[in-house]
Structure formats: structure tokens, C-alpha cells
Amino acid sequence: MVKALIVDYAAGNLFSIIKAFKYIGIDPIVSNNPKDWEKADLLVFPGQGNFSQAMLNLRNEEKDAIFRELLRKKPFLGICLGMQILFEESEEAPGVPGFGLFKGKVKKIPVNKIPHLGWNEVDLKRESTFFKNIPNRSFFYFVHSYYVDTKEDIIYGFTEYGIAFPSFIVKDNIIGVQFHPEKSSDKGVKFLSNVLEEIQKC
């Protein structure tokens, strides 16, 4: 059975993501201890909080170097904010660098009505086993005011809200989604199940 760990960075309520994993038969660990992170088969960085809070929390406790190293080798699922911190910087937190795993900037959505809140489509541009048996343009749940702007060859799906923004990225061991699978009903559950199934094959 996959050992899934939810990284606890003092962002608040993790009930939904814990419940989603339990629904598919996984009892996840919730921890801010790097020793636990190293033992996990899958690291999950949930979407609550903001860019500054996440990065400063990790750096204040001097865990960022360990986390960065694990990002290079351990299966990782970044949800919403958890995807955004993989990039270089964010307009949400000027002067606070991200992990810079990928080149690109997190920008504010250029529409009057934010946050982007509710159900929207994910338009897949490439096939992915993580979306196995999930039809293209399926609806997932979003809640965010910022999006990733990148030219890196990692984008597998887009969503439109004023602009077309990356909502699903993949690179080696890294999976990032702008939507919240834990709040996306049956499609979100299926996505999480697919992620776990692929990790079990490794």
C-alpha cells in the first residue's frame, strides 16, 4: 500500500484532502517532520494558504533544503498552491522566491471577478495515465486568484477563466494541478486513484 504523506505547513484545515485519501483506502500521514517526508512513497502539498505563508514556513524552520532535495526524486503531487511553489516567484508574495524547480512566474488572474471559484473544465493537450478513464474536458473544482505562467514543456492541460492557464502539469516524478481533486467529486477521486496506481507500479 502506498504511504501518502500530506505536508503540514500550518495552513489550516486539511480535512477534505485527508477524507479523499481515506475514501480510496489510504490513511495518509500528516506531518511537518522531514524524517516522515523521507519515508513516504508520495508527498502531497495541499492547496490552502498563500505563497508567502508556505515558503516562509518551510524556510523559517530550515526545511526547504530537504524538501527541495525530495522534490528531485520522490513522487510529488502539488495541489493549487502546491503546484505554484514549484516555480520561481509569485505576484502574491513579491520578494519571496519559490523553489524554482521550473522556470515561470505565478501571476494574478487578469479578470475582475476573482477568485476563480467553482467548477470548470480541464482541456487535456496530452494523454496521461493520471487521467485514465477521465474524459477530456471533465469538470473539476477550482478556487484560486493566481495562475502559473510558464513556457516550460510540462503542461498537459489548460483551463479557461479570462485566459487559458495551465491546470495540469507533469515532469518526471512531479505532478501539479491547479484544481482541487479532493473537492472534485467522482472525477477527483478517480484522479487520485490513478496517481496512487501509477506510484504502485514504480
From TrEMBL:
Name of a matching Pfam family: GATase
Gene source species: Dictyoglomus turgidum (strain DSM 6724 / Z-1310)
Name of protein: Imidazole glycerol phosphate synthase subunit HisH
Catalytic residues as annotated in Swiss-Prot or TrEMBL: 80 (nucleophile), 180, 182
GO molecular function terms attached to this record: glutaminase activity; imidazoleglycerol-phosphate synthase activity; lyase activity
HAMAP family in the record: HisH
E.C. designation(s): 4.3.2.10, 3.5.1.2
Pathway: Amino-acid biosynthesis; L-histidine biosynthesis; L-histidine from 5-phospho-alpha-D-ribose 1-diphosphate: step 5/9
Any one of the GO BP annotations: L-histidine biosynthetic process
Localization annotation: Cytoplasm
NCBIfam families for the chain: IMP_synth_hisH
Subunit details: Heterodimer of HisH and HisF.
